[in-house]
Model the fold of this input.
Amino acid sequence: MRIAVAYDENEEVFQHFGHTEMFKIYEVENNEIVSSRILSSDGQGHSALAQLLENENIDRLVCGGIGGCAVSALGQAGIEIFAGISGNCDEAVKSLLAGTLTQTTSPNCGHHEHHHGEGEGHSCGHCH
Done:
C-alpha cells in the first residue's frame, strides 16, 4: 500500500490540498511503514495533483483542507481520502495504520475566511 500525505517543510500535514507543493509518500507492507520519501508536486493544481498521485499508485491520501473538485478527481482515481487532518505527518500515518484516523471524503476547504488576492486563480468552487 502507498500512502501520500500533503506535506509542509515542518513535517506537518499541509492544510490546503490544492496548493500542496510536496507530498510525503509512505510505502507500507504488513501494516508497517517500510520507507518514505518526499515527492515535489510543482504546485500543479487540484486535477493535476490528483493525476500525480494516481501516477504514483497512491492508495490513500492524508491532507488538511480539500475542495469538492479534488475529492471528485481523487475518487475517480480510486484514492481513499483522509481529510481535515492536522499535526505531524508520521503520526498521522501511524494513526491511519492503527485504524484511529477518521476517514473523511467530504469537501472541507475552509480557507474562505482568508481573503485571496485578485488574480490568484483559485476558487474552491471550480475545478482546475
Observations:
- Residues 46-55 form the longest helix (10 residues).
